[in-house]
Structures are given as structure tokens and as C-alpha cells.
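re the bet — no i am not wrong, look at it urself. input seq straight from the record:
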Amino acid sequence: MPKLYPLPGPVARSLEVVGDRWTLLVVRELLLGGRRWAELERTLPGIPSNLLAERLRLLEEEGVVERVTEARVYYLTLAAWGTRHCGEPSSALATHAGCGGRVLMRSSCARCGAPVPPEALDVRGLR
């Protein structure tokens, strides 16, 4: 059950989805790559199976995790989720699963339209 934060903005919204202990630990495990249910249970000792199911269901509904049905493997789709909720693509590089080519995702300035590489971001003053 997600905890609701009565605050505006993407950070509060993100916390509503991933802001509890077990959910963050599930995300941590999926950062390492796709995992089957049994692997998640093994790498998260102490999580009740009903709680793991609930967290995975929430993450799937929110689009943070995708389950490939044929392989029954869960994959993290956090970059795509963040792009959808934050409104701008990340500056990360991704690989196209179909051909292996690099997929470029870039940020740009909302005022002048110039591309902004990660090293040129100034996040001071954000509240």
C-alpha cells in the first residue's frame, strides 16, 4: 500500500511509488538485471511472499517494472517511468534490444532549446 505525500512535484510522486523499505529493496535487486520471482525471494530474505507480490504488482501498475510473461522475469523500466513522469528524457544511454544499437536520450533547455549534457546541469536552488 503506497504512502501518499500531500506535496506537489515528481519527488513526492516518486516516493508514493517506491518510498518504502521493501519496494526500494525490490528496485535495488532489479537494478542488477532481470529477476525471476524465486530469485527475488532468495535475494530478499524476510520478505513475505504476499508482500513481494503486492510490491511487484504496484511497480507493474505504475510502469516501474515490466514482467516478460514468457520468461516470467521482472525488469526495471525506471528510466522510462521517470521520463514519463518528469516530462523530459534522461541523458542516459540505452541499447535497443532489437538490434543492439545505442539509443540516445538527451535533455534540452526548456527556455532556449539547447541540448544540456549531464555535466552542464545546475541543480542548486531547486526546492
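see?? The first helix runs from residue 10 to 18. told u. also Residues 42 and 90 are 32 Å apart (CA to CA). so pay up
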